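Hi! If you just cloned this repository, the fastest way to understand the data is to look at a raw example. We've pasted two of them here, unedited. The first protein comes first, obviously.
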Amino acid sequence: MLFKKYQLVVFKDKNGSCSTFSLRGWLILFTLLLFVAMAGSNFYLWQYYQEHRIVSRQLDRSKDTVNSQKIQLTTLFHKIQELEKSLERVQELDGKLRVMLNLEPPMDMNPNPAGGTSENLSSASFPFYRQEMLTRQMHSFLDRLRSEARLEEVKQQEILHALHKQRDLLSSTPSIWPTQGWVSSEFGYRSSPFTGQRELHKGLDISAPEGTPIYAPASGVVTFTGRDGAYGIAMELDHGRGITTKYAHLQRYVTEENTKVSRGELIGYVGNTGRSTGPHLHYEVRVNNIPVDPKRYILN
C-alpha cells in the first residue's frame, strides 16, 4: 500500500481541463505526518508563548515589588540616620548640661550609640539578594537605638533631679550666643595672626559688622568696663560659682560696673578696638579664672 501509486486529479476550470499527479502512498503518509507534527508543534509553541506571557507579567510585578521594597529600605535607612543624629544631639546636650551641673559623665557615654551601624547601610540601591540581610541589620540597629533612647531617658531624669536642686543654675550659666555672626577663630592653640607664634586662643572670635548688638549670655554682675590693653574696649561679667565671661574689641558698652544684668539683656556693641584684624567679638568663658571652651556651655 505504501508503495502503490495514487492519482490526484485537479480540475482547473469549468471547461473540464485538469491536471493529474501521481504520488506514492508513503509520500502521502509522510506529508500527513508532517502536517500533524507541524500542527502539534504550533499548538505546543502557542501554549509555551502563553505561559511565557504569564511569567513575564509575574516578573514585571515582582520587579515592581522589588523596586518598591528598595524605596522602602532607602526611606527606612534615611529615617534611621535622622534618629541617630537626633540621639547624638540629645547626648551632646546631655554632656553640656552635666558640665553646667557638675555631674559626672555616665560610664557608658558613647558619642556613636549604635557603633556606626547605619554607615554599613549607606548604599541607596540594595541588590535583591541583600535585602533580607539589610532588613535584619536595620531591625537590629533600631533595637539598639531604642535601648540607647531608654538609657538616655534615665540620664535626663538624673539631670532634671539635679535641676530641681539648683533651680537658678541655668539662669546664671552662659548658655546662649552673645551675638550673631560666624566663628572666625575657635578656642584652643593657633598661630597668632600678629606674631605667627603658636599660642592659646582663650576664647571665640565671632565676626560681625560693627555695631552688632551683644547680649548677656546669662545673669550676672558687671565687674569691669573700659580699655584693657590689646583687648581694646572690654567688659567682664561675674555669673557666680567661679564662672566669668569677657567681651573684647567692643565699639562701646551700655552697662556700668556693679550693674546686674539678665540673660538676653543688651550689654554692648561689636567693634574693632584694641589689637584686632577686623570687627569681631572676642568672647571668653573662665571657670575659677581658667579659660575654657565657651561652646561647652552654649545650648542654642
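Ok, and the second one:
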Amino acid sequence: MTSIDLVSRYYAAFNAKDWTAMAACVAEDINHFVNEGDKRGGRRAFAEFIAHMDDCYDEHLTDIVVMASADGSRAAAEFVVNGVYKKTDAGLPEAHGQTYRLPAGAFFDVAGGAITRVTTYYNLKDWIRQVS
C-alpha cells in the first residue's frame, strides 16, 4: 500500500466514523501533534483523543487531496472540515450546535505500512469566530 493509499484510508475511516479502522492506520508508537496542542504519544492516547473529538464535534471532511514524497516516507493532505460543535470543549466557546467550515491540512510520516506521525493544522481563530 502506498502512503497516498494509507492516508486516504485513514481519512475514509474518519469520514465513516470508524475509529477502529482509523486507529489501525497508525503505528503503535504514533506521534500525534494536535493543532496548537501538545504531542500525544502512542495509539492509546490517539484513540482517547479521537473519542474526545467525537464527543464534542461531528465532522466530515471534503475536498481531500493527498500528496506524498517520492519515497513514500512523508505525506501531506489538504481538506475542508465541515462540522457541528456538539458539546463544549474545555477552554473554548460554549457549544450549542453551531456549524463551521474550515480549511485544514495535515502532515504525516509513514514507515512499515503505518502512519508514525500526524500533525494537523487549521486556523483556530477562524473556527472560534465561526462558533462564537
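That's it. A detail worth noticing about the second one: The beta strands are 26-33, 39-41, 57-68, 74-85, 98-111, 114-122.
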